[in-house]
Design a protein that fits this description.
Layout (H helix, E strand, L loop, with lengths): L28 E11 L4 E10 L3 E9 L8 E9 L9 E3 L2 E5 L5 E7 L3 E9 L4 E2 L14 E15 L2 E17 L5 E10 L5 E9 L2 E10 L2 E14 L5 E10 L4 E17 L2 E12 L2 E12 H9 L5
Antiparallel strand pairs: 1-2, 1-11, 2-3, 3-4, 5-6, 6-7, 7-8, 8-10, 9-10, 10-11, 12-13, 12-19, 13-14, 14-15, 15-16, 16-17, 17-18, 18-19
Length: 314
């Protein structure tokens, strides 16, 4: 049974949440921040991802993928790097990733210095942060104490070998802190998409503990509202990489938003042996307007291997 529409203005989010948090002394406590970059005109996509656990041991990954790379994806990662407890995200350095948040939820600077590629970029948020904790049911306890999502515009320069590409594009970031239990969810679909600075969509639809749940928002017409319901149709290739999406979203203001997406690049992110995250960059259309976006489909690795090895039934 669908819940009735009930629009609630989002409460303010303390700016300290744009910085580092004090983690609890629990086995799966961690804090993480990814940024995604979508460059469809160049058949490229990139992301940076950094994390730190309760013992102040950190890691980072910088990945560039898509046909525009001209070969295999470029991926550089480190983990288990001890960092000072006092190091905050206003000047965060782990491996190839140097991240500078303004601690105001407005802007950030990134310098990603890899051997095969580098990226220097400026992120400017397009709307206030949305926290999963705003939802009446809160943030799922296996995902985080809380989690923030925010869309933005990004401009900068990407270097691949000797090639340099100046770009201005869509970007998104999230920031979570608390327990991350990768094995409790059985599947999820996570998406950010944008068609101009005034039209942004985010959702996380997930299956866990026998329930299908939804978090997310729509930002358009100068108003941000939480998602109320979502209908999605999609197909995939033989490796179960997401391909085409058609989505109808209804928010708590009663607005209906239509999204169509076509993926052009994929990368498998493996946070642990039990979990595979299929990252996908896409060209899309939102309410008839041209845009771009990013999706992530989560699969238990053993299940994904089974699907890929199973003979077709028709």
């Amino acid at each position: 049974m669908k819940k009735p529409l009930q629009h609630r203005p989002f409460p303010g989010l303390d700016r300290s949440n744009n910085g580092r948090h004090r983690l609890r002394d629990l086995p799966l406590e961690r804090e993480s921040i990814p940024y995604t970059f979508v460059l469809p005109d160049h058949d490229l996509a990139a992301f940076c991802y950094t994390w730190v656990n309760k013992d102040s041991k950190a890691g980072s990954a910088f990945v560039v993928f898509g046909d525009g790379v001209g070969g295999a994806p470029i991926a550089e990662a480190v983990d288990g790097i001890e960092v000072p407890q006092t190091m905050n995200f206003d000047d965060w350095r782990v491996g190839a990733v140097h991240l500078r948040h303004d601690l105001q939820f407005k802007q950030a600077e990134m310098r990603l210095e890899g051997q095969g590629a580098s990226l220097h970029a400026h992120f400017e948020a397009l709307h206030p942060p949305y926290a999963y904790g705003f939802h009446p049911d809160g943030c799922p306890d296996y995902a985080a104490t809380d989690r923030i999502e925010q869309a933005g515009r990004v401009h900068g320069t990407l270097r691949i070998g000797e090639r340099r590409i100046a770009f201005e594009a869509f970007g998104a970031r999230d920031h979570s802190w608390g327990t991350r239990d990768w094995q409790t969810p059985q599947h999820w679909k996570w998406l950010h998409a944008q068609a101009g600075a005034d039209l942004c969509v985010h959702f996380w639809q997930f299956q866990a503990r026998g329930k299908t749940e939804l978090r997310g928002y729509v930002f358009k017409e100068d108003a941000i509202a939480e998602l109320h319901s979502l209908e999605i149709e999609f197909d995939h290739d033989e490796q179960y990489n997401q391909r085409h999406l058609e989505i109808e979203l209804q928010d708590t203001l009663g607005r209906v938003t239509m999204l169509k997406g076509q993926h052009y690049a994929h990368f498998p992110l493996i946070p642990g042996p039990h979990t595979t995250l299929t990252e996908g960059a896409m060209r899309c259309e939102i309410d008839g307007r041209t845009g771009m976006g990013w999706s992530e489909f989560m699969w238990p690795t053993s299940y994904l291997e089974y699907l890929r090895s199973s003979p077709p039934t028709r």
